[in-house]
Amino acid sequence: MDKVSNISFWLLTMIIPLSGVIFTVILLIVVDFITGSYASYMNGIGISSKRIGHTISKLFIYNLVIISAHFLETNIVDEIPFLKIIAGFIAITEIRSILENYTKIYGVNPFKVLLQFIKTSSFKEILTFLSSHQRIKKIEKEK
User: Going along the chain, which residue ranges are E strands?
Assistant: First the structure.
């Protein structure tokens, strides 16, 4: 039992500096799963065990990659911020997926709305744009 607790303590001391990054990645994966499940529900698509398994594998694989990047950065090449680069790519991937789910739920692409908002000078035009997309989505659903 002493060997197991010693190994556990050693592993925890190696992973504790990554707790913020790991927590953020787990949070993004959970939010992606929730929004994806809700998008499936809203579009009448069932939630399958294959998709849940995909989420669970992402939890393990992403965190293993983050831990590997941390060890690579601290023990081999400390000049290149591998952890920040890899964690950034993972975060961007998950945020993109969350925004795609948002588009599936509400029928509005947040990037297009943001670009429209930047291009137009009137906030009223943006509200008109959003409401027209909501009406189109509602009409399509009723068919």
Answer: none
H helices of 43-122, in order, are 49-75, 82-106, 110-119
Cβ neighbours of 66 (radius 10 Å): 21
Residues 89, 28 contacting (CB under 8 angstroms): no
**Cα–Cα distance between 49 and 47 in angstroms, integer?**
7
Six token digits for residue 134: 């909501």
Q: Is 79 exposed, middle or buried (0-12, 13-18, 19+ CB in 10 A)?
A: exposed
**Of 31-35, 105-109, 113-117, highest mean pLDDT:** 31-35
Whether the CB-CB separation of 28 and 36 falls below 8 Å is answered with no
Reduce the secondary structure of 30-45 to three states and give it as a string.
Answer: HHHHHHHHHHHHHCCC
pTM of the shown model? 0.73
d(CA 119, CA 11): 51
For tokens 């607790």, the residue is 5
